């Protein structure tokens, strides 16, 4: 006998269900002829099948389910946005709209803040020229200007002389921007003064100089090493961009 | 597959899938255990089947539809009662581990429909599924394997264990 007795009971189910291949089926039949226990199990499986199926225990779909389903299918077939249920679609639409509105509001807000700051920068620049109060420390030496700020502010601005590039340093002073004390460095370009405002902006990535034209002034704004920079002058935009690019590097 | 216009898709679906609504309901009813949940599951599964109808390749619409009903049911079951999932645990509880269709246990041949239904409903979900698909819907092992997403060997052993438990439940010695 090639089939072990212990394997037979499980295989008997497949045998009774007609799921065994011919070779295994014949093996089982041979075993059944000699093994009364297995024969009894086979009869039990067949008897169970009879009992389970004799009184038609299967459930049938109720008529109202069939009706409701047909109606639901018709609705589904008409819907253009099929694949997503209406509540979900509505929810998704509302969410997306809310996010867009919020983003637009934030963007508007940022733009408005930017414009307001630009106006302040220009105001500072104009005042510095009118009051002949351009610099508190007059020096073209960066090593003189930088230490002057020590103890007056709680950050250390980078002070660079750009004489070799045609933008000699004229000096520095303290100024106010957006309600905070900021550093103002003054450079010259062919008698045109340039005000460079520097204020710390923690945890903000570097941005390239961005040009803003307001009230006939050229402005550039950029962020570099967690410092916000505003350069303002009545210089033409190309020359001021050159200046900004030198510092933003 | 070719793209169907909506009216064609609907009539094709009604022609190919809706004839199996009784089989779908029967499976869902035995899996879910009550009319309301079964109806919800069948409705949900049918709409899902309709949405995915274009992915149906046209071989075996009854098995295709019932696999969706089956998956919808098990998802719902997990939601309703997480204790349904553990077959092994349930089987040990029912104590049918050692004897294969114990020849000494005779089942009462005069069982009525409700007794049989209640007996099937006492089985763990995977066994209810195996019994319903095999004994009541006459699916082949291969088809059941496809519907339940398990190997044929698993279908065979589940069916053997399910029948063993069912026999225990139906036998007089077990119930008395």
How would you portray this structure in words?
The complex is a heterodimer of chains A (249) and B (176). With 249 residues, chain A is an alpha+beta fold. Chain A folds into two domains: 5-52, no CATH class; 96-248, Protein Transport Mog1p, Chain A, CATH 3.40.1000. In chain A, 49% of the residues lie in helices and 21% in strands. Chain A has helices at residues 8-16, 22-34, 36-54, 63-78, 86-130, 142-149, 237-248; strands at residues 137-138, 169-177, 180-189, 192-200, 207-214, 217-224, 227-233. Chain A has a seven-stranded antiparallel beta sheet with strand order 1-2-3-4-7-6-5, sandwiched between helices. In chain A, a hairpin with a 2-residue loop joins strand 5 and strand 6. The longest helix of chain A has 45 residues, at 86-130. Chain A is elongated. The mean pLDDT of chain A is 85. By secondary structure, chain B is mainly alpha-helical. Chain B folds into two domains: 6-82, Rna Polymerase Sigma Factor, Chain: A; 86-175, Winged helix-like DNA-binding domain superfamily/Winged helix DNA-binding domain (Arc Repressor Mutant, subunit A), CATH 1.10.10. Chain B is 68% helix and 0% strand. Chain B has ten helices and no strands. Chain B has helices at 6-16, 21-32, 35-51, 61-80, 87-94, 113-121, 125-136, 141-148, 152-170, 172-175. In chain B, helix 2 packs across helix 3 and helix 7 (125-136) crosses helix 9 (152-170). The longest helix of chain B has 20 residues, at 61-80. Chain B is elongated and about 55 Å long. The termini of chain B are far apart. Chain A binds chain B through residues 9-10, 13-14, 17, 19, 37, 40-41, 44-45, 47-62, 65-66, 68-70, 72-74, 76-78, 82-83, and chain B through 6-7, 9-10, 13-14, 18, 21-22, 24-26, 29-30, 35, 38-39, 42-43, 46-47, 50-51, 100-101, 103, 107-109, 111-113, 116-117, 120, 131, 134-137, 140-141, 156-157, 159-160, 163, 166-167, 170.
């Amino acid at each position: 006998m090639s089939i072990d007795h212990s394997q037979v009971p499980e295989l008997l189910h497949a045998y009774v269900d007609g799921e065994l291949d011919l070779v295994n089926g014949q093996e089982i039949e041979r075993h059944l002829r000699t093994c009364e226990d297995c024969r009894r199990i086979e009869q039990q499986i067949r008897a169970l099948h009879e009992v389970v199926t004799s009184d038609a225990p299967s459930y049938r779909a109720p008529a109202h389910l069939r009706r409701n389903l047909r109606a639901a299918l018709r609705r589904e077939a008409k819907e253009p946005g099929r694949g997503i249920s209406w509540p979900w679609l509505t929810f998704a639409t509302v969410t997306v709209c809310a996010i867009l509105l919020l983003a637009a509001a934030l963007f508007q807000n940022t733009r408005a803040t930017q414009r307001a700051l630009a106006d302040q920068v220009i105001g500072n620049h104009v005042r510095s020229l009118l009051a002949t109060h351009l610099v508190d420390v007059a020096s073209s030496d960066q090593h003189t200007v930088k230490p002057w700020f020590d103890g007056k502010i709680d950050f250390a601005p980078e002070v660079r002389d750009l004489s070799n590039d045609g933008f000699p340093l004229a000096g520095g002073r303290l100024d106010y921007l957006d309600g905070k004390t900021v550093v103002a460095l003054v450079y010259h370009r062919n008698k045109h003064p340039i005000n460079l405002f520097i204020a710390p902006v923690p945890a903000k990535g570097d941005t390239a100089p961005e040009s803003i034209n307001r009230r006939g002034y050229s402005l550039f704004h950029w962020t570099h090493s967690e410092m916000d920079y505003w350069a303002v002058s009545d210089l033409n935009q190309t020359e001021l961009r050159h200046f900004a690019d030198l510092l933003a590097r | 597959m070719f793209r169907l216009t909506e009216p064609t898709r609907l009539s094709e679906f009604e022609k190919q899938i809706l004839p199996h609504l009784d089989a779908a309901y029967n499976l869902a009813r035995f899996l879910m255990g009550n009319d309301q949940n079964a109806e919800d599951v069948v409705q949900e599964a049918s709409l899902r089947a309709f949405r995915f109808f274009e992915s149906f390749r046209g071989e075996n619409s009854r098995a295709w539809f019932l696999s969706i009903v089956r998956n919808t049911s098990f998802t719902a079951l997990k939601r309703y009662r997480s204790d349904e999932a553990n077959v092994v645990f349930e089987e040990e509880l029912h104590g049918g581990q050692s004897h294969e269709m114990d020849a000494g246990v005779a089942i009462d041949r005069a069982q009525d429909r409700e007794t049989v239904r209640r007996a099937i409903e006492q089985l763990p979900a995977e066994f209810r599924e195996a019994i319903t698909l095999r004994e009541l819907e006459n699916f082949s092992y291969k088809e059941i394997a496809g519907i339940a997403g398990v190997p044929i060997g698993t279908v065979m052993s589940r069916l053997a264990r399910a029948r063993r438990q069912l026999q225990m439940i139906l036998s007089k010695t077990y119930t008395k």
